[in-house]
Amino acid sequence: MTKTTILTEVASVKALKTAWQLLNKSNRDSRGISSITIKNFEDRLDSNLEKLSTELLSGKFRFSPVRGTTIKKKNLQAKLVSPQGHLKNLRPLRIPEIKDRVVHKALAIAIESHISHAFNLKNDSSFAYQKGKGIENAILKMGMYFNTGYKIILEADIIKFFDTINSLELIKKVQTALPDDSINTLLADAVKQQIGNIDELKSKKVFELYFENSEAGIPQGNALSPLLANVYLSSFDEKMSTSGFKLIRYADDFIVMCKTFEEAGNAYEIALDELQNKLNLKLHPLGADSKTRIVDPRQHEFSFLSVRFDGEKFTIHPQKLKEFFLKLKCLVSKQSRSELYPNEEIGLFQALTKLKNLTDGWIAAYYFLDCDRQIDELDKFINILLVQIFEDFGLSLKKNVLVEESLKGQRRKNLALSLKQRKATGIKLCTETLNKVRDGISPLRQRIQELLIEEHS
């Protein structure tokens, strides 16, 4: 009878298939250094998973080099904002092979099941990368603390968190907590994959700026990185909790809810000592205009996780709305569509489908906020956008049946679809989608009050 180890757990076809199912596969043409795409891998899924299982169990599996690439930052979509695509406006990515992503995910699932208790990963302060938790839960907790008197907020951001983590120390910590050493080498190799296209990156003049001397941390985009980040900061969570502070952490972004400015100052000092002196991380310096500051949201503009909070209402941060407008606008012209979806043939039907899917997903992410007016504005924008999309595909619209619409903050009026025309496109009004998603779910402010009543009953 074969002894069960963590490696045999990870290498089972069942575990690998579960990992595959949990991977983000929205970009079917995504690939690593080779030409094998997600679609290619799925076409022979069973045989590919069987092969992975055999290689892992025999010790023959090796991680491949990753493909280094850069993408334009979210608020600089295509050429709509940054025509020159200046180098400083790029974000680096290290894209693994599809087979490696499956193994990363299988490792993350198995490791978390064995070490979650040891590092108290499901503590009340941590909200990122955990089943049953997320941004909505973090904002709900923030509202509850605020309504019970914790109205002064220390907000903070760790400088280059993923790049500056001491990965060697972190991997050793995880390995020590595991019940056996069967995946020790595999785990170490998983976070130290080399870049396989250095010459290409150098020719684009981005290697030195974004990739050189960046191997010390853990790679963003690797399915293991979220778990490892929470492990690394677990001691910070514990320190803040035992010190009596109301910490809300989402990956490397965190706030501490306090009753006074003095308490918030003390929270900063303890957080700084724990992060800087014990974890070798750096916070942005404390200051009124810094990413690390102490603020009363009733008096000064405040947002957390792209949610703006004024002490009463929770709304989508205006910049987030603007970024989404820009992303949707990339569907207007053939050139911007090809830049956003380089490996797809986008016809009118595909463009409308992407518009619908993007909008539905975005609303589902923010439905719990006081965003009704912002969703109304999104509907106006889409009605204007649809006119431009139809015209780009050569469909002439009768101007006398169109309406004029102006967006918030703009004097200029734009031609837009009427309500009747919008319905004919098959793309539901965003307000209808919002109401459908909210069906049976109380508004956030009401849920906060209900939970507070439950706590005191």
Descriptive notes:
- The protein has helices spanning 6-11, 13-22, 38-43, 45-58, 98-115, 135-147, 161-164, 167-177, 184-190, 198-203, 207-211, 225-232, 234-242, 261-278, 318-329, 334-340, 348-366, 372-392, 419-425, 430-438, 444-456; strands at residues 67-72, 90-95, 152-157, 246-250, 253-258, 293-295, 303-304, 307-309, 314-316, 403-405, 414-416.
- With 457 residues, the protein is an alpha+beta fold.
- The strands form four sheets. A four-stranded antiparallel β-sheet has the order 4-5-3-6, with helices on both faces.
- It is globular.
Keywords:
10% strand; single chain; globular; three-stranded antiparallel sheet; 457 residues; alpha+beta
Radius of gyration over all CA atoms, rounded: 24 Å
* Strand segment tally: 11
Count of helical stretches: 21
Strands ordered across the widest β-sheet: 4-5-3-6
Specify the biggest β-sheet.
4 strands, antiparallel
Shape: globular
Give start-end ranges of low-pLDDT stretches.
75-86
Overall mean confidence score, pLDDT: 90
Oligomer: single chain
Which structural class fits the helix and strand makeup?
alpha+beta
Strand content: 5-15%
Share in helix: 40-55%
Q: How far is the N terminus from the C terminus?
A: 54 Å
Pfam families: RVT_1
Family: Belongs to the bacterial reverse transcriptase family.
Protein name: Group II intron reverse transcriptase/maturase
InterPro entries: DNA/RNA_pol_sf (IPR043502), GrpII_Intron_Splice-Mob/Def (IPR051083), RT_dom (IPR000477)
